[in-house]
Design goal:
Helices cover 22% and strands 40% of the residues. The protein contains six helices and 27 strands.
């Protein structure tokens, strides 16, 4: 395997060198074959990260001083989840970029190396030190209990006959002073042991992490090899960008309203998953809704041919003549997403476009197919498989109109609804939201995709100061028609809305009437007071379905006999003897 890797690397180096020689001026071709390839290595530092919903684009910055000539700069320690075909580099300064490629080489067993043996021994020493410090702390606690027991004796003496024992006050004073001094020494020693144990545990955690990282099952060294032509000696600055998996983000919200409804704020956060194996410290973080794993073009639609089955004669068999049929041309099966001729997610021609066109350059970018947010502060996100990390995108102060909604046919509660207009430059993405009213948690809701200036609704729970009650005043069934050949059922209903809030409100009251699905049955709204809502959306969409809506003004303090009311009458006519589905009240 190592021989094959060496042969492959040699071939790649020869290819790159040939390209370099071809790029040199014509008068230098004669000397091109003699140009030595110099080498440098630098891990660099992660400076910027663009997070997508299911992966991330990481940019490392490498600064290395190079002399005149040809160079291969090796950037090691790429994570295991790196997408090999996604590497791209950008060079600043006088150096010229000639190529970048991915390298993976299996490393020798770290545990068997001198460095690995020394690290394992250090881990064992630190574990023994932590255990010894814990034992010292236990022994010190036992000694402290003994000192406490000695301190009780001067005040616990008595004669068997109940008489008080004579006490030498000076002796007791000296004993108490000695006990106090010993208690102070114990306290100081206890603090020293605690600090020493904490420091040893930190060192142990670091050493164990190093041993696990370098002595685990994955001993493949992944690196990017950048080939440069350096016409003048100086500092070369390389930006290496690559895609990694095991990372992503999703929007999360906290919607908060003041108790007096004077202000509503939407805290727009990102829940980040970072399990790449490398820590991102003080990086410029951009959050993008683009999906670079998806094909950038739609899959091709293949033609569908239909033909007539043509019988194909075959050799006669005993007992008769057998015939075979050639099957008609079948419709081609649809191609799976990401098939080769679709242009895969990371085809060499698409990766550069994905990383350049989809990365964010501004605070908020809406490109029609993707939205990006660039956070204005450095962010630290350590690799942690156990939790999601929350970071703030921004806070939106939407324009909010509050209103009440009641459905007394289902519940007497009256619910507060807010209609929020996104007055920010942020595109609100679909996600879960926690809702708070006056600092109290109300519940969770789903925020839809909301463009700037778009509207969405949020429910803030029931208001205990308002109630809505529904009553069936009467239900009468009798004969109908000229000769009594039909049957009529009439419902008279009343809804009472009480307001104890101390302010005038308008309540959207909802109910329903029977609707007929058979021409033999007639269902109608005979009367309604006040009139139904004239809201355009309601009239066009819900009213034809038999939903009743009133926009009912309810004055402050409208309770008991002064409560606001709605009355309405529904009628159902059908022929005598015709059995219908049940009609609830």
């Amino acid at each position: 395997m190592n021989a094959m890797n060496a042969l492959s690397s040699a071939r790649r180096a020869a290819t790159v060198l040939a390209a370099v020689i071809g790029a040199l001026p014509s008068h230098a071709h004669a000397q091109g074959a003699d140009i030595p390839m110099q080498q440098a290595s630098d891990r660099g530092a992660i400076r910027a990260v663009t997070l997508y919903p299911d992966r991330a684009a990481v940019t490392r910055e490498v600064r290395v001083r190079l002399e005149h000539g040809l160079w291969t700069v090796r950037i090691p320690e790429l994570p295991a989840s790196v997408v090999q075909d996604s590497l791209q580099a950008r060079v600043r300064g006088s150096a010229r970029l000639l190529g970048v490629e991915f390298s993976a080489a299996r490393q020798p067993d770290f545990a068997a190396s001198p460095e690995g043996t020394a690290l394992a021994e250090r881990v064992r020493d630190l574990r023994r030190r932590v255990a010894n410090l814990a034992q010292d702390r236990t022994a010190l606690e036992a000694h402290e209990k003994l000192v406490d027991a000695v301190g009780i004796r001067p005040t616990a003496g008595a004669q068997p006959d109940g008489a008080a024992q004579a006490i030498d006050l000076k002796s007791v004073e000296r004993q108490l002073e000695a006990i106090a001094a010993e208690k102070a020494r114990i306290l100081e020693e206890s603090r020293r042991l605690a600090d020493a144990k904490e420091a040893a545990e930190r060192e142990l955690a670091v050493a164990e992490g190093q041993l696990a990282a370098r002595g685990g099952a994955d001993r493949v060294e992944r690196a990017a090899v950048v080939v440069l032509s350096v016409p003048e000696a100086g500092m070369a600055e390389i930006d290496l960008t690559y895609l990694v998996g095991r990372a992503g983000w999703a929007p999360a919200y906290a919607i908060r309203s003041e108790a007096d409804r004077s202000k509503v704020s939407v805290e727009y956060d990102a829940m980040v998953v970072q399990q790449t194996g490398e820590d991102w410290r003080d990086v410029r973080l951009s959050l993008s809704t683009a999906e670079p794993t998806r094909a950038s073009s739609p899959p091709p639609v293949e033609p569908w041919f239909v033909d007539v089955v043509v019988p194909v004669p075959v050799a006669p068999t005993s007992g008769g003549v057998a015939m075979e049929y050639a099957p008609a041309a079948a419709a081609p099966e649809p191609m799976a997403p990401g098939a080769p001729n679709e242009g895969g997610a990371f085809g060499s021609a698409e990766v550069e476009t994905s990383l350049k066109a989809l990365a964010a350059d501004a605070d908020v970018i809406d490109a029609g197919i993707a939205v990006s947010f660039e956070l204005p502060r450095p962010v630290t996100l350590v690799s942690d498989a156990a939790k999601r990390q929350r970071t703030r995108i921004g806070t939106v102060s939407p324009e909010t109109a509050f209103g009440y909604v009641a459905a007394p046919i289902l519940t007497e509660r009256v619910y507060l609804r807010g209609t929020l207009r996104n007055a920010s430059a942020f595109q609100l993405l679909p996600g879960r939201a926690q809702v708070f009213m006056g600092g109290e948690f109300v519940g969770e809701t789903l925020v839809p995709s909301v463009a700037p200036q778009g509207e969405f609704r949020v429910w803030f729970g029931p208001d205990p100061a308002l109630t809505a009650r529904r009553e069936v005043l009467s239900k009468v069934t009798g004969a109908n028609g000229l000769f009594g050949g039909a049957e009529l059922t009439t419902w008279n209903n009343r809804i009472t809305v009480s307001n104890g809030t101390g302010r005038d409100v308008t309540v959207e009251v909802l109910d329903r009437r029977p609707m007929s699905r058979n021409e033999k049955v007639e269902a109608r709204l005979a009367a309604a007071k006040p009139a139904l809502s004239a809201d355009k959306a309601y009239v066009e969409q819900r009213q034809p379905q038999g939903i009743l809506r009133w926009d009912l003004p309810v004055p402050a303090g409208a309770q008991g006999p002064k409560a606001a009311t709605v009355t309405w009458t529904a009628e159902l006519v059908r022929p005598n003897g015709l059995q219908t589905t049940p009609v609830p009240d």
